[in-house]
Amino acid sequence: MSRTPDDYDLEIKQLAKELRILKKQLERSEKDRIRLENTNRTKESLLKRVICELQESQSILERKSTDLEQAVTKLTAMQTELVEAEKMAALGGLVAGVAHEINTPVGVSITMASTLMDETQKLMQAVAAGPLRRSLLDHYLLIAEESTSLILNNLNRAGELVQSFKQVAVDQTIAEKRRFAVKPYLEEVVTSLSPQIKHTGHSLTVTGDNSVVLSSYPGALAQVATNLVTNSLTHAYPCEARGHLRFDVSQHQDQVVVNYSDDGCGIPEAIIGKIFDPFFTTARDKGGSGLGLHIAYNLVMQRLQGQIEIRSVEGQGTEFTLLLPISVHSQSQV
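The structure assignment produced for this chain is given below.
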């Protein structure tokens, strides 16, 4: 069975614990100090082996990133073919939109893999130079943990985006149902969206009850949240405007309530009844496909077995309310 980055993290944490014990023994006697030095040499050898294994794992993650980049290329090529076929032309924008959204998690994954490689090389140089400082090891472990977590989260999100394309273009795909805490999960989604938010100047926060739990499909909720945020970024703010986007989580009896709001320009009353319609968009010139809110609507109503409501006043922002059952009925994989 192949080992995972988590296995390596656990092994390195155990190694750090042993080094702390050896340091205390060193303070007790000179004889223990000599034994500690011998042990450190052994541990450094083990650390080199662990670093090699981490590099192998990093190579695997980089190959996955490359595969996703190739998928983006294939989706872009598919766009050209769809435009040539009149009856499929409407899906061309979807392919472009999916390719654009996949670029963000793929880019984050590549950046984090590069950071991990740089830090690994620095650690190897330090090991080769002599006794390893504890502070340097702690720094490397922190970077490794954060990098691998971001890489896995973003690659998983990219995979879910490809699945969302299948849902609209081919057929709905049922993801795994499990219990999860809603607010912490949305915070993970917000973290994965941070590269997309950073350059806009907007702020995106998650508030509410940490204890609210759903037995549902987290991938579907992540896609809904992503589409709502993307919709705000595309439509709610004029150029150079800075705004605040917020998720709020609460529970009322047997329903989980997720409120999403922005303080943007709002939606004109004349079109608010059309926003969930497939291919309806007012931002075609910006690359909008008109499917983001349609996908969100279908995921809430079908996969999450809930309801979605919208309230908006032109000039005063927009609020979406998701009413979700605490536990959904299992759906067969298709």
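Interim note for the steering committee: The first strand starts at residue 178 and ends at 181. The chain has two domains: 5-169, 178-325.
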